[in-house]
Automatic annotation (TrEMBL):
Oxidoreductase found in the keyword field: yes
Keywords from the named record: FAD, Flavoprotein, Oxidoreductase
Protein name: Alpha/beta hydrolase family protein
Protein family: Belongs to the GMC oxidoreductase family.
MF GO annotations: oxidoreductase activity
Reported cofactor(s): FAD
The keyword Zinc-finger appears for this protein: no
């Protein structure tokens, strides 16, 4: 595919935090209208832009969509900060959606949301903060985070220790541990992760899940993509892990102050939700998306969809060498309905 170029639009979240939008530059018309892609924690919008034969940005552009990438406060393209899901849901995503509509003149848009971009965006949706969004394709986790048992052990047992020694974790420490804490954690990763991944890839698995690896099946990734990943991960704050710990313990998304259980409420959104999950996901188990699909399907039977992919995990849904053939067709078909 030809090299992609993006135009950057800066925006300020409701609490003053600096964020940005990247819009794919293209000469062809976009009759399908705007689609907003929302990344996970400790990466950036560029995580949707891997060097595969045809990535999701390519596929959406070819299908006639006006492609936008949001860099919310969990992005490594933003200043490092201690954030939680509520902050992103209340301050970042509503402004990003409004900005895309303003800049394009569109009355509404569609969204593809991943991991903690998905959990925070789902909070925005169920609180009625993004009414312009008509269709949401969500990958890996939505309202009901379900993790492997060892991830629960790490969240409950190891997190307090991590909080006492560092405000951030950074998978790049796999290649470049820059202080004593990073070097100690790197030694621990070396002892516990024996998979044939890169050093950064192993640190990603230590940080975000329980598998070997946790976020992808190595068989789905080319060597080029494995090497590319090494520069796509960065700092993620322990404040996020503290919030998701509470959510995992509750069996659903809850507010950071424990005052609101988001799946106990009637969702204030008319959007159609399409849930994607890899059956081999070792970050958030496929039960996460199954539970969220059931939650929405009970309220409007037959309106929403669930796709489960036997050979895929978490992030290889977008980074996989054959994801265009195996997954992107489903995404585009659902967005075009």
């Amino acid at each position: 595919m030809p090299e992609q170029r993006f135009e950057e639009y800066l925006f300020t979240a409701l609490d003053g935090f600096p964020c940005s939008l990247w819009r794919l530059i293209k000469e062809e018309a976009s009759p399908e209208g705007p689609v907003l892609l929302v990344h996970g924690a400790g990466v950036s919008g560029n995580i949707f832009n891997p060097p595969t034969p045809r990535n999701i940005i390519d596929a959406l552009s070819i299908a006639g969509f006006d492609v936008w990438l949001e860099n919310w406060r969990g992005s490594i393209a933003c200043p490092a900060n201690q954030w939680d899901l509520d902050q992103a849901a209340e301050n970042d995503h509503p402004v990003a959606v409004r900005e895309v509509c303003r800049l394009t003149g569109a009355a509404n848009l569609k969204a593809i949301i991943h991991c903690q971009g998905s959990t925070s965006f789902m909070i925005s949706a169920v609180k009625g903060l993004v009414p312009q969004v008509t269709t949401v394709v969500t990958n890996a986790v939505s309202l009901h985070p379900v993790v492997p048992w060892f991830s629960r052990v790490k969240l409950e047992g190891a997190l307090p220790l991590i909080q006492s020694v560092t405000p951030f974790l950074n998978p790049r420490w796999g290649d470049e541990p820059d202080d004593a804490v990073a070097r100690w954690l790197k030694r621990w990763v070396d002892l516990t992760h024996w998979e044939k991944d890169t050093e950064v890839g192993k640190f990603v698995s230590f940080t975000y899940g329980s598998g070997h690896p946790a976020l992808w099946e190595l068989a789905n990734l080319s060597r080029v993509v494995m090497d590319w990943i090494k520069t796509e991960f960065g700092k993620v704050p322990v404040s996020f892990f503290e919030h998701i710990r509470k959510c995992v313990a509750a069996g659903q998304l809850v507010s950071a102050d424990d005052s609101v259980r988001y799946a106990d409420q009637t969702p204030k959104t008319a959007a159609r939700f399409v849930f994607l999950t890899g059956k081999k996901n070792r970050c958030f188990l496929h039960a996460s998306q199954e539970k969220s699909f059931e939650y929405f399907n009970l309220r409007r039977p037959g309106f929403h969809r669930l796709y489960e992919y036997e050979r895929y995990s978490h992030l290889d849904i977008f980074l996989g060498e054959h994801a265009s053939r195996d997954i992107f067709r489903d995404i585009i078909r659902e967005l075009q309905q």
